[in-house]
Design brief:
The complex is a heterodimer of chains A (about 475) and B (about 130). With about 475 residues, chain A is an alpha+beta fold. Helices cover about 15% and strands about 40% of the residues of chain A. Chain A has helices spanning about 5-25, 150-175, 180-200, 220-225; strands at about 40-45, 50-55, 60-70, 75-85, 100-105, 110-120, 125-130, 135-140, 240-245, 255-265, 275, 285, 295, 300, 305-310, 315-325, 330-335, 340, 355-360, 365-370, 380-385, 390, 395-405, 415-420, 435-440, 440-445, 450-460, 465-475. In chain A, a hairpin with a 4-residue loop joins strand 7 (about 125-130) and strand 8 (about 135-140). In chain A, helix 1 (about 5-25) packs parallel to helix 3 (about 180-200). Chain B is of the alpha+beta class. Chain B contains one helix and nine strands; from the N terminus they run H-E-E-E-E-E-E-E-E-E. The model of chain B has no long low-confidence stretch (mean pLDDT about 85). Classes of the chains: A alpha+beta (about 475), B alpha+beta (about 130).
Chain lengths: ~475, ~130
């Protein structure tokens, strides 16, 4: 009787063992604690160029802050925000049906305006941003806080080891139950082994596929990305995209809209898996026949369909390029067929285009210098602006290049989109546009692959307005000739 | 003696509960994938092995079975650019359709487009589905 462990103690040990077992098999607890980062989407919504920021959620279910940054010239007014979940489980409401609404009142001054909405689940969502005429449907994934199984085994193991140690000490101190002390000590050894194995293995275990970035997000794989561990992960990149640009018959000087239809280059299906890349789902560059540039961020109106509005001031053939990233990774530059604008040429289109040197645009002095203008080697352009700069799309500056241009922009063999990075170390949550602390000099390094005449557009943001600096540069060949 | 029996019984209950919970967490033999639009909710009920037949449940916003003229299932594997043959589902009961002959030949994530046609109106609902073998 002395050495026999009592059933109650045995039951306690069994309970500890059960906790350990369940630790190893239960799905990750999704909710609680902040997860993920702020997600930023530039949107050309009608006349408004907006930056929509979905802040990271502190806890799910819980509130999520949606901020809208306006720019100089953005009309005041109100926007409707609607949150639509894209997946469901258990007694959550059906996907595709709105769960919360809010209104954002935009003031006349460029600033950060926002509203708080409530989310009831992690996983795939759509944020509908409406201005009364058009609705942008922005897809985003709310990540869940996931503890890796190995980490959970380590924590659970050490907790169980501590409990076993306590039992063993108590049994030994009372001196009557040597058997119980032995059993508890054995449990402690086993739990320590589990914990140590978990702790040692956790850094070497490959993390699961990032849902929403590498794979299509569902509620289940957001909550437990380890559940799909058996699925092979090879090349995750997806096929290229075909884009059709539809423009209604348009005359110069009239506002028009572009409809961009995206289809998969392998299956022909609509492409609806774009990732935010450099702060937008899609970067559209339109160049007019005389070299005026638009850098816009079309809104997603339906699966595989994007729209944007602009006013072409001149007639002729407009060239188009689209930069995007599909789920699975890989940025693509697509150059769909452009569109034609009828009617007489109107003044007020392209501003005067100069080469290197100093110029004044919209009251801001800009000086551009280059270290060399020779093909094949790299060229560094230094742009000095007499204003404090803000980050636009997460960058200090954007450089768009088309060339060598002989007949038309559409036929230019090279289109580039380079960046001047924000100074300092990249962080998960870079400063937004409310921070005016950059510049005055922005440097771009790029390579002109062939000699010839290149058109360049440098874009920086100051005082909540994007400044576009057009340039024309003649690049020599390495052996001295023009061609 | 009585205490020993009680202890054994308690142990047995704890062991049985642990085993049951572990099995329950492995999931049922069928899985459900849900997708929806502003008008419809579609549930795909499929065996864990993704083998035929599939049951598709189409409901309206209020959760009642929805009447549609045709339900088509079009599987695509977006990561690989593969498309599998489309299957037209046959009605079984109000809001319940049965799709036979769907072949998903590769493991990985598939994207199932469920096309609902009612009169001239057509709606597409995309539902991700993972095949692990």
């Amino acid at each position: 009787m002395r050495n026999r462990p009592c059933p109650r103690s045995l039951t306690a040990l069994a309970l500890i063992a059960a906790v350990l077992l369940l630790q190893a098999t239960s799905p990750a607890v999704a909710d609680g604690g902040p997860a993920g980062t702020d997600q930023s989407f530039a949107q050309s919504l009608g006349d408004r160029e907006l930056t929509v920021i979905v802040r990271r959620a502190e806890a799910i279910p819980g509130p999520v802050r949606v901020d809208v940054v306006t720019h100089r010239g953005t009309p005041a007014g109100s926007l409707t925000l609607t949150l639509v979940p894209q997946d469901a489980a258990g007694n959550l409401s059906a996907p595709g049906q709105a769960t919360d609404h809010a209104e954002v009142r935009l003031g006349p001054r460029p600033d950060l305006y926002g509203a708080t909405v409530r989310v009831d689940r992690p996983g795939p969502w759509e944020l509908e941003l409406g201005d009364g005429v058009r609705i942008a449907r922005i897809p985003f994934v709310l990540p869940a806080k996931v503890i890796p199984p190995a980490e959970r085994a380590a924590y659970g193991g050490f907790v169980a080891a501590g409990a076993c140690l306590l039992c063993a000490l108590l049994a030994a101190a009372r001196g009557r139950r040597a058997g119980l002390a032995l059993v508890a000590a054995g449990g402690m050894v086993a739990a320590t082994a589990v914990a140590t194995t978990g702790a040692l293995l956790s850094p070497t275990i490959r993390p699961p596929a990032v849902t929403g970035t590498e794979t299509d997000a569902t509620l289940a794989n957001t909550r437990d990305p380890y559940a799909d561990a058996a699925v092979p992960r090879g090349d995750v990149a997806r096929p290229p995209v075909n884009i059709r640009v539809q423009v209604p018959a348009v005359a110069a000087g009239r506002r028009t809209h572009l409809r961009l239809l995206l289809t998969d280059g392998s299956t022909g299906r609509p492409v609806d898996d774009l990732l935010p890349h450099h702060g937008a789902l899609m970067h559209l560059v339109v160049i007019s026949p005389t070299g005026r540039l638009w850098h816009l961020h079309p809104i997603r109106v339906a699966a595989g369909e994007y729209r944007v509005e602009l006013t072409p001031y001149e007639s002729g053939r407009f060239a188009v390029s689209v930069e995007l990233a599909r789920r699975g990774g890989g940025v693509q530059l697509i150059r769909p067929a452009g569109f034609s604008v009828a009617g007489p040429v109107r003044a007020g289109g392209a501003s005067k285009t100069l080469g290197l040197g100093t110029r004044s645009i919209e009251g801001t002095r800009i000086t551009v210098t280059a270290d060399r203008l020779v093909a094949t080697g790299s060229t560094t352009l230094a742009v000095t602006v007499d204003a404090a700069l803000q980050l636009w799309l997460g960058m200090q500056g954007h450089l768009i290049v088309a060339g060598p241009v002989s007949t038309s922009f559409e036929q230019a063999p090279v289109w580039l989109h380079g960046h001047a990075m924000a100074p300092g170390r990249p962080t998960a949550n870079p400063p937004d546009e409310t921070v005016t602390a950059f510049g005055p000099q922005v440097r771009f390094t790029t390579t002109f692959p062939y000699p010839g005449r290149y058109h360049l557009w440098i874009q920086v943001e100051r005082d909540y307005a994007v400044l576009t600096v057009p340039l024309v540069l003649d690049v020599r060949s390495a052996n001295g000739g023009q061609r | 003696m009585m205490r020993r029996v009680l202890g054994c019984l308690l142990l047995a209950v704890v062991a049985a509960t642990t085993v049951w919970l572990a099995i329950a967490q492995r999931g049922p033999h069928t899985e459900v994938a849900i997708g929806g639009s502003a008008q419809y909710t579609v549930r795909i009920v499929v065996s864990a092995s993704r083998i035929d037949p599939w049951t598709l449940e189409v409901a309206d916003r209020a959760g009642r079975p929805a009447e549609v003229d045709q339900v088509t299932v079009e599987p695509v594997m977006p990561g690989m650019g593969h498309a599998a043959a489309a299957v037209v589902a046959t009605p079984e009961a109000p809001g319940r359709y049965r799709a036979e002959g769907i072949r998903l030949p590769m493991s990985g994530q598939w994207e199932i487009t469920v096309r609902l046609r009612r009169g001239a109106a057509q709606e597409e609902i995309l539902i991700p589905l993972t095949v692990a073998r």
